[in-house]
Amino acid sequence: MNERGSPKEAGDSIRIGFIGAGKVGFSLGKYFAEHDVHVSGYYSRNLDSSKEAAIFTNSKYYEKIEDLIIESDTLFLTVSDQAIGKVYSEIQKYNLSGKILAHCSGAMTSEIFSGISQKGALGCSVHPICAVSSKQTGYRDLSKAYFTIEGNDNNQLLSLLQKCGNPVELLSSEYKIKYHGAAVFASNLVIGLYHKAAEMLKACGLSEEFSKKALEPLFLQNCNNIVTKGVVSSLTGPIERGDDGTVRKHLAVLEEEEKTLYQLLSRELLLVAKEKNPERNYEKMEEVLKNNIL
Ligand SMILES: NC(=O)c1ccc[n+]([C@@H]2O[C@H](COP(=O)([O-])OP(=O)(O)OC[C@H]3O[C@@H](n4cnc5c(N)ncnc54)[C@H](OP(=O)(O)O)[C@@H]3O)[C@@H](O)[C@H]2O)c1
Asked: For helices 47-57 and 23-34, what crossing angle results, to 10°?
């Protein structure tokens, strides 16, 4: 809190405390500590987790949640999504005046912090668009992460993350679920596609091991092209060439669900293909992709 008794202005030095010593709590704490941000320490469900996180980040562990609250200006609730509301209910009995509360859920908004302004505090969600899969090494991935902030943080965390070198943008609450859906498209759903491709190779009589491995170079090269050259330059294949004969042959051998998946994703590719080749006539392809969808 600053002298005016309100949440600090961007640029004031802040003490950051973590409730929840899991993968994100460990990683953000270490990341901030490495950028000379004052990390007060950790309170977690299990004392051993708090102790481990305190050692890892050279900060303190707290046996009482109230002590962490007193010694922190900003509190990150880095617990599982299901526990955020429960922890917020628990800490409401303490003085939160002048504090910023943040959670890191990609799908939930700051609305979980209901009535927070009456407590003289601010609430926001701060989401790193990356997978944090390890307590020990996750902080390294955070240096490359883009962040979004939804809710009200008085520009403090925005400015802090920018100083750490992370690109950050503000996200409106109404789009939070759609935003999370976009992240699922780029990560989890790609796993679904990879799995489907490997299953189809196996169905062609190839061994399981070969099927998994054979796709690797193709997949990695494609990912690399997408991030270095963008989707338009990366697009190759029958849709881009306007080869509706090959697309018809594919559709003829696919199972019903596979056909739906293929057609829906190909329609998306068609938008990219048109951008790449504005002079090309894709009418026949449009016709093939329109048929039999759902
Ligand atoms: N992992 C990711 O890739 C990722 C990426 C972006 C955002 N997020 C978000 O970050 C948040 C944390 O995720 P995570 O992956 O770090 O989860 P996690 O590894 O499961 O860690 C959550 C920790 O919270 C503690 N905890 C649970 N309930 C608690 C309670 N009632 N009081 C105090 N501590 C409690 C547990 O600590 P104990 O060990 O003490 O039981 C647990 O280790 C979630 O909102 C998630 O959506 C995760």
From this structure: 20
Q: With a cut of 90, say whether residue 12 has pLDDT above it.
A: no
Q: How far apart are CA 174 and CA 24, in angstroms?
A: 24
- CATH match for 185-290 among 1.20.50, 1.10.1040, 2.30.29, 3.40.50: 1.10.1040
Distance (Å) from CA 212 to ligand 1 centroid: 32
* Contact 19 CB / ligand 1 (< 6 Å): yes
27 lines ligand 1 (CB under 6 A): no
Q: Which of 67, 72, 123, 83 is nearest to 100 (CA)?
A: 123
Q: What is the pLDDT of residues 245-265, one digit of tens each?
A: 999 999 999 999 999 999 999
What is the CATH number that goes with domain 15-172? 3.40.50.720
Tokens 């080749």 sit on residue: 277
Quick check: 75 and 100 in contact, CB under 8 A? yes
Average pLDDT estimate for 103-124:
97
- Give per-residue pLDDT as tens, 26-69: 999 999 999 999 999 999 999 999 999 999 999 999 999 999 99
Whole-number Å distance between alpha carbons of 152 and 170:
10
**pLDDT tens for residues 215-246?**
999 999 999 999 999 999 999 999 999 999 99
Backbone angles phi, psi at 74, to 5 degrees: -125, 135
Domain regions of the chain by residue span: 15-172, 185-290
The residue written with tokens 């060439």 in the block is 241
pTM of the model: 0.91
